[in-house]
Specification:
This protein is mostly helical. It contains 6 helices and no strands.
């Protein structure tokens, strides 16, 4: 939970490299689960194709690969953090107010698509 909270803080302060690294680490530390969480949804989505890497920026931050510089959009940061939050939730059936507010923000900003009939939930 601490890594997720720290990732959220870094995202809010536009320190995207740290936010992604902490969010990905939190997701990776959580035990494997068969429960449905965001990363599993993404892997089964229409955008998932053989040549698409959901971990491209995460891996770029961990390994010395070209290019030397890369733009990290807020969208990518939000997705990585929500991936960690959703996995934390299914593993522990728990969340914090900070996590809940971040997910609401991610929906409101359009980083995560929300069906129109559920829009009332995030107001």
């Amino acid at each position: 939970m601490e890594q997720i909270h720290a990732a959220i803080w870094h995202c809010q302060h536009e320190r995207y490299e740290c936010a992604i690294t902490l969010g990905a680490a939190a997701e990776g530390l959580l035990p494997a689960t068969n429960e449905l969480h965001l990363f599993k949804v993404l892997q089964k989505s229409p955008i998932a194709r053989a040549d698409f890497d959901f971990n491209e920026i995460i891996n770029w931050l961990k390994h010395p690969t070209a290019p030397d510089e890369i733009a990290i959009p807020e969208f990518e940061v939000a997705i990585v953090i929500v991936r960690a939050i959703s996995k934390f939730f299914v593993v522990y059936n728990a969340e914090s107010p900070t996590m809940r507010e971040f997910v609401r923000w991610a929906f409101k900003e359009g980083h995560i698509p929300l069906p129109a009939d559920l829009a009332e939930l995030i107001k």
